[in-house]
Design goal:
single chain; Rossmann fold; 8-stranded mixed β-sheet; 14 strands; NAD(P)-bd_dom_sf
């Protein structure tokens, strides 16, 4: 019978940075893990189903017996220059995909125990200076804010089916397998570490292990509901972040800051990702939960990430 079987966790975007690490956590806990992917691939210990969002297709059997749903799918914000076409892809890859699942759940009368959706700390704005944001702060009005607002609205379509829904507004994820840290550490490894822009912009961050633990906590614990800022506290300035990367690598930091205009010439509007300032506070996690971070200290987190 179902109660004697491993519980099924269906993940969109499972082959990405967070999805891969989260999968190892889930498998260790005895969950059955399944992915929805655009191309069929063989992944050890994971059942892979195909889907085609544009053509309203999800492979038969993918949604059946789903106990938990985790939505990580979305085109990388910092992977390519922001052309108008790329902006459309960043937007639609996050919203259309979960809207499709919501329609299929409704058609098949499937109701998982909980749904956890990725979201972004960019909800509050790409660049908000020293302004401190809790989960109760209003959203921003720029491109990434609008993307995140619609991302969360799409997630609400699952909530409308009567499914407990959690949204994790995630900051910079610290990992040695991808994301911002390896890119920031590369010049530092050769002694060329330098802050970006003014260096005064705030970076809200979280170690990938803590983020994966948060996903599982949100998935399992019925007291979690709504939006949470998935960041550690406190945030750090870009200048301090760079200093600690150099310290973790035991390398000097001697170059002057990389000027903002040079970054804008290179990356265009996408430079907002590294030049923007976001001071985000995990108030709901602190006040309403007993979640304990494994890496609350930035230097310890960077040393763990950069040890290899």
């Amino acid at each position: 019978m179902k109660e004697f079987m491993a519980q099924k966790v269906l993940i969109t975007g499972g082959t990405g940075l967070i999805g891969k690490k989260l999968t190892t956590f889930l498998l260790k806990k005895g969950y059955e893990v399944a992915y929805l992917t655009r191309k069929k691939v063989n992944i050890p210990s994971v059942t892979v189903y195909e889907w085609d969002v544009k053509n309203n297709y999800i492979e038969a059997g993918a949604l059946e017996n789903t106990d938990y749903l985790i939505h990580l799918a979305g085109a990388g914000v910092a992977d390519e220059r922001w052309t108008e076409e790329r902006k459309k892809e960043i937007f639609s890859s996050r919203t259309d995909s979960i809207e499709l699942i919501a329609r299929k759940f409704k058609e098949l009368n499937i109701k998982p125990k909980s749904f956890v959706s990725a979201s972004g700390s960019s909800f509050y704005g790409e660049d908000t200076g020293d302004l401190q944001h809790t989960e109760h702060s209003p959203p921003g009005k720029d491109f990434l804010s609008k993307v995140t607002i619609e991302w969360e609205k799409a997630a609400d379509q699952i909530a409308a089916l009567g499914v407990r829904t959690v949204k994790l507004r995630t900051g910079i994820v610290l990992s040695n397998d991808g994301g911002a840290v390896p890119k920031m550490a590369q010049p530092a490894k050769f002694g060329f570490g330098a802050p970006l822009g003014s260096g005064k912009q705030w970076l809200s961050w979280i170690h990938i292990d803590d983020l994966c633990a948060l996903y599982i906590q949100c998935m399992e614990n019925e007291s979690w509901d709504g939006a949470y800022n998935a960041v550690a506290t406190p945030p750090a300035t870009n200048e301090y972040f760079t200093k600690l990367i150099c310290k973790a690598l035991d390398k000097p930091q001697w170059l002057p800051n990389v000027p903002a205009f040079a970054l804008r010439l290179t990356f265009g509007e996408m430079a907002n990702v590294v030049l923007g300032s976001n001071y985000v506070i995990n108030q709901r996690i602190q006040d309403e939960t007993d979640f304990q971070y494994q890496f609350p200290d930035l230097l310890d987190a960077l040393k763990d990430v950069l040890k290899n």
